[in-house]
Design goal:
Strand content: 35-45%
Number of strands: 37
Distance between the termini: 60 Å
Radius of gyration: 27 Å
Shape: globular
Structural class: mainly beta
Helix content: under 10%
Largest sheet: 13 strands, antiparallel
Length: 472
């Protein structure tokens, strides 16, 4: 199979009413090679889980009812079996090849982070403390004690003070492990490099641009390599799904596929792996550099006419410049500075065409103003590229910022309909409720948030009219 040859010209017609693609690939130098993927290579069950990959050497995959892989059977007869804890985290891996059975056990903290890894060696009956993960604010590397912890085993003298048993990872803004170094210096006081990898955008290791003498467990996005499945770096274990970087796709459908109706449920990072990081196989996140999170976007304004476009563009630029930002503290207590780098321009015909026809999220958004004066509305899709507004709300900065935040990937923080009694109080009985169309209640903890509603509950439980955004 020819993969990721940037000089390749592919001629492969899809045969109607079949699942077969056939044809040839013309690679560099004019050499013609047949496409091997021409016989139902990939098999799926009725809910979209991959159950076979002939070219990958996988004859069958068995899934649990929770969407986790239970067992992989390879065409060479070897098998991998997985067991999980109550939270769905991998707890055990058993690799059977020939007469040898290799076992791996994972020890995790309350958040699911791997703390240590135990296993046997070459199929023997002992249990070894094989790895101890090293953390700062995130994973720094691993220590390899290789200590036999079976009953009655003797600890070798000097283990605790020895060097060259640690590997520290050097990663980029996406968490990709680019290299690992040991804690032992060479004669010239430089670090001893144990591994190095260059990746294609979707995570496949580039041929002839990798080196490894230490077998480091983690790679692209900082995820565990299951090299026993399809080869080095070809099968990545995320917390919720398994990823194939050769194809740039998952082995099962997106559990949040309804949130992204315009994308394949097998897509990786909304097809923008340099911009987004898929943290655990469920959803994407904006990339983070150090302790700074930056949201960048250019908004193109398409008003009813050129003059109105300029007026709206100038107003947005004046009202937003320098007024957004703050700090964010994650669940581990790490604090980040949040920055917004937003710019506003009037839209040309080329801008409208480029943004409207973009299938993937880009760092640009088109604001389209509708001339309908009879209706007041605004809309913006999560992670999308367009905002639609009626003329009556386009001049209200609150609506614009709310919808623009959706384009940046943020979700609503309000309930659409408020249920209150005739006095504005929260009623205790169902028959006391009445529907107030068009109003909303901000979710607890998001009062004053630009993605909250126009109303919030005060300390007495009453509905109080309040601006969602305050400007200085």
């Amino acid at each position: 199979m020819i993969m990721f040859d940037i000089t390749a010209v592919i001629e492969a017609p899809y045969l109607a009413s079949t699942s077969i693609i056939s044809g040839t690939v013309i690679v560099g130098g004019g050499t013609t090679k047949a496409i091997l993927d021409a016989g139902n290579n990939y098999g799926y069950d009725l809910i979209g889980n991959m159950v076979s990959d002939v070219q990958g050497g996988v004859s069958n995959i068995t899934w649990t009812v929770y969407g986790k892989i239970k067992k992989i059977t390879k065409t060479d007869g070897s098998t991998l079996e997985y067991k999980y804890d109550a939270d769905g985290n991998r707890g055990c891996k058993v690799y059977t090849h020939g007469t040898q059975v290799d076992k791996t056990w994972y020890v995790r903290d309350a958040s699911g982070n791997v703390l240590a890894i135990y296993g046997n060696k070459d199929g023997d009956g002992n249990v070894y403390w094989k790895e101890q993960q090293l953390y700062g604010s995130s994973l720094l590397g691993s220590w390899y004690p290789e200590l036999n912890v079976s009953a009655g085993a003797v600890v070798a003298a000097g283990l605790w003070g020895s060097t060259n048993k640690k590997q520290y990872e050097l990663s980029n803004h996406l968490g990709n492990v680019l290299a690992t170094v040991t804690d032992e210096l060479k004669a010239d006081n430089t670090a001893l490099v144990m591994s190095a990898n260059d990746y294609y955008p979707f995570g496949m290791i580039q041929p002839d641009r990798s080196y490894s003498s230490g077998g480091y467990r983690y790679g692209f996005n900082g995820k565990e390599n299951d090299n026993e499945v399809k080869g080095e770096g070809m099968n990545l274990a995320y917390e919720n799904r398994i990823y194939d970087p050769r194809l740039g796709k998952w082995l099962s459908v997106d559990p949040l596929q309804s949130k992204y109706p315009g994308f394949s449920p097998y897509n990786f990072s909304l097809n923008s792996p340099l911009y987004f990081k898929d943290i655990d196989g469920r959803d994407v996140g904006v990339t983070i550099t150090g302790n700074t999170i930056t949201f960048s976007n250019t908004f193109y304004i398409q008003g009813l006419d050129p003059i109105e476009s300029v007026i709206l563009q100038q107003n947005y630029d004046r009202l937003f410049k320098g007024k957004l930002g703050g700090t964010y503290t994650d669940e581990h207590g790490k604090t980040y500075e949040v920055k917004f780098e937003l710019s506003f321009k009037t839209a040309t015909a080329a801008d409208v065409n480029r943004i409207s026809n973009s299938a993937a999220p880009i760092a640009e958004s088109l604001v389209r103003v509708n001339p309908d004066k009879k209706k007041s509305y605004s809309s913006g899709s999560i992670g999308g590229n367009t905002i639609d507004m009626s003329i009556s709300v386009a001049k209200d900065i609150r609506f614009y910022f709310h919808e623009g935040s959706h384009n940046l990937g943020m979700v609503d923080r309000y309930d659409n309909i408020a249920l209150v009694d005739d006095n504005g109080q929260r009623a205790s009985l169902l028959e006391d409720f009445k529907w107030l169309q068009g109003q909303s209640v901000t979710m607890p903890g998001f009062e004053g948030d630009p993605l909250g509603g126009n109303y919030k509950l005060d300390e007495n439980g009453k509905l109080v009219s309040d601006l969602a955004v305050k400007y200085s």
